[in-house]
Amino acid sequence: MDTVSTHALAWMQPALLGPLALFTFISSITPGPNNTMLAASGLNFGLRRTWPHVWGVNMGFVAMLVLIGLGMGAVFTRYPWLHPLLKYVSAAYLLVLAWKIAHAAPPLHPQEAGGQGQPMTFWQAALFQWVNPKAWVMTTGMVSAYVPSGEAFWGHLGLAALIAITVGMPCIILWAAFGSALRRWLHRPRMIRAFNWTMAALLVLSIGLSLV
Length: 212
Hints:
- This protein is mostly helical.
- It has one domain.
- It is 77% helix and 0% strand.
- The chain has helices at 3-11, 14-29, 33-45, 47-78, 82-102, 122-128, 133-146, 153-181, 189-210.
- Helix 3 runs antiparallel to helix 4 (47-78), helix 3 runs parallel beside helix 8 (153-181) and helix 4 packs across helix 7.
- The protein is globular.
């Protein structure tokens, strides 16, 4: 049996898959910019209109993971000043998004949401991953810890992307569904504003944690 086959079989062992799946689950289910924005979108626009946002987050993250694995991270090694610059530019952009969430016009009824703003599109959500500090932490962590270089690199990277899809997708759907479910109980504009302000505060908190 050649070296590539040996590495591939070793990678498929549950003992090695478990840590990566657990890392992906914990990182995906915990609050962060994506999840707070998905919850707010679910409340303000409903789950059906939030689906492009959901898919954009998942596919954008996977694309980012693959590109980081293919060498995007080497750019920061060569130009280390880019990393803190990106961090603070991203934080400023997230603060703008937090302000928009906090001041989103609350629909009085699900049918009224259509005329009050628009949810994120697929491409907006996908491109957002590149200014999301948590996405950078997750992708660089997955590549550095679970995608070792060598002859089996492509297999490792492909499997990491597959786990990001299968484990991460249900987690972000849960957040969008959580926000959508609250539409049944949060009928008053004041309650919806309170929820939006809470999500905005969580987003700002995640920004602060990313700058530590």
